[in-house]
Amino acid sequence: MVSVGYSQDSRNASEVLQKAIKFHDPNNKWSYFDTSFKVVMETPNAPKRTSTITADFVNQQFVLAVEQGGNAYTYNMSKGDCSITLNGNTEFTEADAKKFRLSCDRGKTMKDYYTYLYGLPMKLKDPGTLLDQKVEVQKFKGKEYLVLKVRYDENVGSDTWYFYFDPKTYAMEVYQFYHDESKNDGEYILLDGLEDINGIKMPKTRAWYMNKDNKYLGTDILFKN
Predict the structure, then answer these.
(1) How many alpha carbons fall within 13 Å on the CB side of residue 140?
(2) pTM reported for the whole predicted model
(3) Highest taxon of the source (predicted)?
């Protein structure tokens, strides 16, 4: 474990979350998000992956365009409809679909993944989010944070999450999840820097590590598109 030392803060979790949302999304832009951004993922022993995410929440549109290792594929999700292209073609073999994991179920998973992680901490107000009202004060890698614990209704998710906020600015700087906390599984993610995307302060870089042994998994770097 990289986190040590718990104590409790007098503030309740809803208050801390609201202040964190005010820091990251001061003008409530997330609810009406309509823009695009780019994420470059660097992982050991794998080619760099560039993902361009375009989302229009009001019109229920989401497009994910991925380039990696000389190939490109796109998911286009619009009001429940789904279309997929591989290297510009709407038709591709079953072997290629398996190789690149191309399916509408996968597209929905990736949509949920990007809108969740880049929508934090605003997404912690979503229905089905079970926010523990206790606020812990905890040191993580030598810095003291206000920590919120979140679980989810079983129809939403089964992981346990912890979110670490700077006690002065309420900026989100770390988050961590467990599938089974008693096994110390799951991962922690270190956030560094901020990028202004459509008026929202999103983490510039996210570095992923295993909880159990601090093994480095990769880094996502956010760019304006």
Answers:
(1) 23
(2) 0.92
(3) Bacteria
